[in-house]
TrEMBL record:
SMART domains: Lactamase_B. Signal peptide: none annotated. GO terms for biological process: RNA 3'-end processing. Transmembrane segments: none annotated. This is Metallo-beta-lactamase, putative. Residues 30-137 form the Metallo-beta-lactamase domain. It comes from the Eukaryota. It holds the Pfam family WHD_BLACT. InterPro entries: LACTB2_WH, Metallo-B-lactamas, RibonucZ/Hydroxyglut_hydro, Sec-metab_biosynth-thioest, WH-like_DNA-bd_sf.
Length: 221
């Protein structure tokens, strides 16, 4: 069961969280929106996707390493691809806090478009060594280093499990075959999302020359 979150919470003197009323299996309690600073004016920024031409007249696009200043708060942009190509985190200097978006959730794990990039991003956030993480979904993370390491360990463990399943069979098998072995305790409604994660592991292993693929599925070399 997920933690119950209030709709509006003042998390610190310069951070207010507003809970979106869109609970779901991928959004947990709902999407967290944060209001930062102590001023009265609002502005939006966005990091551009590399694979989409976006036209948003009211939005200012961000750059990796860019600093944003509002009344009472200063943030640095860190491009952290993996969950999506345009994913970023924001580092709030005054609190040594990270707004992790969908890269790190308050509860459970997340999905990603590119596992290789995602693992690099997790290690990058670990190097920042934040004191607190304000995630895009779920409650505040007060032990960031431990949480990030859990994410890294989970992916490394999952990769080892996938390699073990592949080693136990001489034939080619599909992502869903692997899911049914490794995600026995997971609701079947999440199997497709799990299969996408397994596919990302397999693509990474393929790049490393550890597995091969044909029309029937995957096989360890």
């Amino acid at each position: 069961m997920t933690t119950v979150l209030p709709i509006v919470t003042k998390l610190s003197p310069r951070v207010i969280r507003i809970l979106g009323c869109n609970p779901g299996k991928m959004t947990l309690q709902g999407t967290n929106t944060y209001i930062l600073g102590t001023g009265k004016r609002f502005k939006s920024w966005k990091y551009p996707r590399s694979d989409v031409m976006e036209v948003m007249k009211s939005t200012t696009f961000l750059n990796d390493g860019q600093e944003i200043f509002v009344d009472g708060a200063s943030l640095r942009v860190h491009h952290t691809p993996g969950h999506t190509t345009d994913h970023i985190i924001l580092h709030l200097k005054e609190e040594n806090a990270v707004f992790s978006g969908d890269c790190i959730l308050g509860e459970g794990t997340t999905v990603f478009e590119d596992l290789y990039d995602y693992m690099k991003s997790l290690n990058h956030i670990l190097e920042i060594n934040p004191s607190v993480i304000y995630p895009g979904h779920g409650p505040v993370i007060n032990a960031p280093g431990q949480k990030i390491q859990q994410y890294i360990n989970h992916r490394n463990m999952r990769e080892a499990q996938i390699k073990e399943v592949l080693s136990d069979t001489r034939s080619f098998i599909t992502e869903m075959d692997i899911v049914k072995v490794l995600y026995k305790d997971t609701p079947e409604s999440l199997y497709l999302a799990a299969a996408k994660n397994v596919n990302q592991h397999l693509l990474k292993l393929e790049k490393e020359g550890i597995v091969i693929k044909n029309d029937e599925g995957w096989k360890i070399v």
